[in-house]
Amino acid sequence: MYKLDSKTEKALHIQLYEALKDDIINNLKVGDKLPSIRELCSNYNISKTTVQNAYNQLYAEGYIDSIPKKGYFVSELLECQFSPKISATSKESKKQYRYDFSPTKHHKSYFPIKIWKRLSHKALNLDLDFASYSNGQGELALREEIAKYLQNSRGVKARTSNIVISSGFITAITLVAKLLKQKYANFAIESPGYYITENIFKEYGYKISKISLNMGGINLDELSKSDAKVVYITPSHQYPTGLVMPISKRQRVIELMHKKDGYIIEDDYDSELNYQSRPIPSLHGLDNYDRVIYVGTFAKALSPALRVTYMHLSDELLKAFKLSYDSHFCSVNIHTQKTLELFLKEGYFNRHLRKIRAQNKKKHNLMIKCLKSELGCSFEFVAKGAGLAILIYPKGSFNWQKFKELLEKESIKVYFASLCNTSNFEAIRLGFGNFDLDEIPKAIKAFANVWKEISTAY
Predict the structure, then answer these.
(1) What is the mean pLDDT of each run of 10 residues along the chain (458 residues)?
(2) What whole-number distance in Å separates Cα of residue 147 and Cα of residue 357?
(3) Which of 117, 172, 204 is nearest to 330 (CA)?
(4) How far apart (Å, rounded) are the C-alpha atoms in residues 183 and 203?
(5) Domains plus CATH for the chain?
(6) Full-prediction pTM beyond 0.90?
(7) How far apart are the C-alpha atoms of 74 and 95, rounded to whole Å?
(8) CA 335 to chain centre
């Protein structure tokens, strides 16, 4: 039970916010569901507005995620910021693995903490107005810097006025789903594709069309025949297969969705981390019809803990955004925005990108070399060359259940990606970003020892 006292000077919603935050940091686990607004109102005899204000603040600061029709949950990215204690009601502690092949993490040493601290202090001396709410689209100066970056590095036809800053990918895609729902009901997504995006659009009641992949990405014939007028794609590095959509196909998908009077949501997933060629310019840069909603994030290139995502909305959707409740407040705090603005403006972000590309390329190439050496011809590559993970698939018969059991026994954590609409065709995602360079041969050796007990093709 939380202690709330209506007789003190501190507002009730602040008391509740502080109590919930303390519970999240010290007791709850990532993914735990928080009490519903109705439940808190009933238990503490407080108003709905009081509870909603407390949750709004937690959400804005990145402690919780809001999933439509399901409720509030402890943010998955808090792992990057805290080491929460385990709730007294939980008997499980978070297992520490000998080798964790996380496909989404950089090594903790990668974040430029000294520079960030200095810029953070500098940002506090910019006479920030902490007495007022910041611009609902995000601070103008930060949006200007993001627009310059997108124009120069990703070929986006970026206009500062059309950029909206949001706290994390889920918040951004939820907003897009909400805005598009005013006009559209049918949604298409690549199959296999990013399940979180699919789930968000399901929650908003869209009819979902899963479109298969062929050479260069999404199957345009299937997309054309579907009822979908909104499609979500990852053209620069398809999730999870790693396919890259060629320029000709990008132009065709734009023409198709223009004829449908629809929209393309371009998730520029892993676009900055390419090790085999220059990053391909964005789909948005080819769009002459204002039909592409561009979504990018600083999670992979800088840090997921910052929880900063940006969208470039069409003029039509920007008008709808400005009429919505979401336009009143930016969900990224002003101090983070101003620090990030300085990081971009003073050239640190571009230098940081060059550094992590070079370091991750070495790790990527070393992991490929080790896999070939240890596993021989018993596997095939599904995806490589970009991002923070390599995807492989076994040749010959393979006992997936025993494989997973042995990995757990040996304290090795790997990740899986379904390559079709069935769970029995999986690729293994081996992340390299989380390791020091000299750890990779040891990690692959341990992984290979388990593999050799399972694979008949070895």
Answers:
(1) 77 85 82 88 87 80 73 66 41 71 85 92 79 81 95 91 92 93 95 89 93 91 96 90 86 96 91 72 91 92 88 95 85 90 95 91 95 93 85 86 91 81 67 93 95 74
(2) 22
(3) 172
(4) 16
(5) 12-90 (1.10.10.10), 129-346 (3.40.640.10), 350-454 (3.90.1150.10)
(6) no
(7) 19
(8) 21
